[in-house]
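Notes to self after the Tuesday call (sharing in case useful).
The group wants a holo model before anyone commits to mutagenesis around the pocket. I volunteered. Ligand is fe (ii) ion. Logging inputs and output together so the record is complete.
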Amino acid sequence: MAKKSMTKSIGILGGTFDPVHKGHLKLAAIACERFRLDKILFIPCNDPPHKMKDRIANSNDRLNMLEKAIDDANIYRPNHKFEVSTVEMDRQGKTYTIDTLIQLKEIYGDGCNFYFIIGADVVMDLVTWRNFEEVFRLVKFIAFNRQGFPAAKTQKQIDFLKEKYGAKISLVNTDLIKVSSTEIREELLEIKKSDTIKDEMLMTTYDYIILNNLYGYFDKLKKVILADLKSSLRKDRYEHTVSVMDTACELAIRFEYDTNKAQLAAMLHDVVKEYPIEKLQAICLKSGRGLDKCSRNSTNLLHGPAAAFIIEEKYGIIGNEISNSIYYHTTGRGNMSMLEKIVYVADKIEPLNNFNGIDKVRKVAKKSIDEALLILLEKSIERVKTEQKELHSLQSSAFNHYNKALKTKK
Ligand SMILES: [Fe+2]
Ligand SMILES: [Fe+2]
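Result:
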């Protein structure tokens, strides 16, 4: 194997990454800065000897989530060189740190210093590691202590390991690690998430979890939301919602979008439509969005912005993509995302709905979502004019955007 001799100091951050979260990236960044490391290798484990097997997502999913997170981190933190290494996953059976270190020495050469990054709680277990004395000879350790955890006992153990085995372990106290992967998994399935979990979750990871129904999260969320809707909405509104959900799923398949995310957004689009207008106004006032002169007294215009705000509080839905598709489902807007278009169109063309010309729109929607969207925007503007109501600026800007875009295309 060719030796890579350019790098001098490499940090190793191993773990299950089930799932990876911002805390992992923060640790890596601190280690890079404090110990002047040239790069950090994130090494997802294959079959860890110290963890329960049944708590681990499949290695392919863990690796995919980690790779996406590291790609993003390298874009947003160009000063830190983060890399994913599959040395452990590529080996069969149980993996031990000593085998990994020997392999890395082989790859990077003897001139390279390795820093093994661990949680402070792991310090107590180091003497149970296979060939731990050899491990102490090969690497220095950086042990991170989470705020609120007493460091004195750990420091005592570090002093003991240093004296008896010559171990080199630096203890770093930090308040930047707020959660563990286990806490994230557990809170995900609680549906309502704490602010800490929302802050520490990476968007790419959350999207991946929904898309792949990891930890059974999408199934659980869908079940909880549909049960809530069934008991709180009028029968016809509930049936409309399920129908929009199915139509959104079909559109997502047709236009190669995440079907689970499309279903989630669709099932929540009318979640507050039956709220009294005062309640919708209060929600929009609280969120600071959606309440303007034109929409103030319109349930039709307020239920989108109000629902977009409620879904985070009620179901812990994270990120702007789903909430924006709900926010704009009645007005549309210029330059809509694919999910916004899917929810807007599905809401109007679902099989239970009926209006003059609906069959034509359904046919168009099989080929071009933008063309279907433009027809629907035009119809909604016509309706507003017929009813002699005020046209919302978002509706006109949506129509102008797609009218221009499609004309330019032709
Ligand atoms: Fe609606
Ligand atoms: Fe609807």
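Two things stood out.
The pocket of fe (ii) ion (ligand 1) is lined by residues 269-270, 273, 303, 329-330, 347 (CB under 6 Å).
The chain has two domains: 9-199, 218-409.
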